[in-house]
Amino acid sequence: MSIEQHQQRAADLLRAAGILPVLTVHTLEQARAVSAALLEGGLPAIELTLRTPVALEALAMLKRELPGVVVGAGTVLSVQQMQQAIDAGADFLVTPGTPAPLADALAEAPLPVVPGAATPTELLSLYARGFRVCKLFPATAVGGLAMIKGLAGPMADLQLCPTGGITEDSAAQYLEQKNVVCIGGSWMVPANWIADGAWDKVRDSAAQAARIVARVRTA
Ligand code: 3PG
Question: Which atom of ligand 1 approaches the CA of 137 most closely?
Fold first, then answer.
């Protein structure tokens, strides 16, 4: 499959997700329970960060045990981690930033990828490699809505997944932007809820997020 086809799949799966929870877990049980709660709330796609020792095992377990969950590997920092995430069965990959060697490898990857960038120059480097769907990270820190509106003119065919600092209160404004295909965030899976096993809160916050997506999309 060509990069164009993989990028189309990335756009499709992010658009279907609308809001992508960025999830960090420390145990397999947390991974299972929080993913089930997100699914129940109406968010079937997740970005599971590779920031903890259990992350790759959790990814493989989710693919086996919760087939309804679309599992992206996040915080992919190197070509080695890219390969490990693919081997673990990731449905897609997300990076927070994309140095050239990683970008080159991602352009050849056999699955949808969403490479991260923080500036117009970084986005154009990705564009030159064929990427049309990119994560803007850390979105609020690098300009937030003003940055996204500014990019829409000169880079009109780039679709963005802003992530970093977005909240339940600001989510709709981001989703309403014509060059935003999806937004990422951890507000529905904060570390303390995961540590406390507050799965009802995760489910309710996911349901609220899913309602925001539905409301924006039907407006
Ligand atoms: C992350 O990598 O932690 C994500 O960008 C989540 O950002 P947030 O916690 O600001 O939503």
Answer: 5
| Residue 117, SS3 per DSSP | strand
Which tens digit of pLDDT belongs to each residue from 15-41?
Answer: 999 999 999 999 999 999 999 999 999
What's the mean pLDDT when you consider all of the chain?
98
218 found inside a domain: no
Closest-lying ligand 1 atom to the alpha carbon of residue 96? 2
Domain that holds residue 98: 3-213
Q: Strand pairing partners for 135? A: 116, 161
**Letter string b/e over residues 41-60, b meaning 16 or more CB atoms within 10 A of that residue's CB:** bbbbbbbbbbebeebbebbb
93-125: pLDDT as tens digits: 999 999 999 999 999 999 999 999 999 999 999
Pocket of ligand 1 (CB under 6 A): 22, 137, 163-166, 184-187
CATH of the domain at 160: 3.20.20.70
**pTM summary value:** 0.96
